[in-house]
């Protein structure tokens, strides 16, 4: 607190004014009066509903400005957090889609291999019939070896289940 002994006024350090002119004695005489006027102005009631003073309203306004500034500072953080969550969701969705795509490709490949196995068996059956009709021993032995090789892979449906010929045997 500040004290002015010549005028017996005790004031808080709310406002400090420093003025210097040609004649310091004039300022010394006016300083106390100015501080008294400022104090009276700050203590003036301006809100009749709540009996608040200029000082109270200035404090409230200052608090509101600080709260507003803090809210503005927090807003980008919240927006960044929201954006981060959205990005994580997109990445998760992308990973899920990639897994589903791999699964679909694997299923399609399995179906293609099963179809290829069926075609090979049909071709080998036709080649065996031709070899038997021509009584070609070498071709018959070749067909037998090929059919044994195809059977070692297992039935066509085991490919779709993800099994190999070793799993079936």
Give an overview of the whole structure:
The structure is a single chain. This protein is mainly α and about 170 residues long. It has one domain. It has helices at about 25-40, 55-135, 135-150, 155-160, 165-169, and strands at about 1-5, 10, 45, 50-55. A two-stranded antiparallel ribbon has the order 1-2. Strands 3-4 form a two-stranded antiparallel sheet. Helix 2 packs antiparallel against helix 3. It is rod-shaped and about 140 Å long.
Task: Sum up the structure in keywords.
169 residues; mainly alpha; two-stranded antiparallel sheet; 4 strands
Q: What share of residues are in beta strands? A: 5-15%
Taking strands numbered 1, 2, ... along the chain, how are they ordered across the largest sheet?
A: 1-2
Helical content stands at: over 70%
Shape: rod-shaped
> What's the tally of helices?
5
Q: Characterize the main sheet.
A: 2 strands, antiparallel
Which residue ranges are poorly predicted, with pLDDT under 50 across at least 5 consecutive positions?
none
SS elements, strand count: 4
Whole-number tally of structural domains: 1
- Report the structural category: mainly alpha
Mean pLDDT, all residues: 80
Q: Rg, please?
A: 48 Å
N/C terminus separation: 99 Å
Helix-strand pattern, N to C?
A: EEHEEHHHH
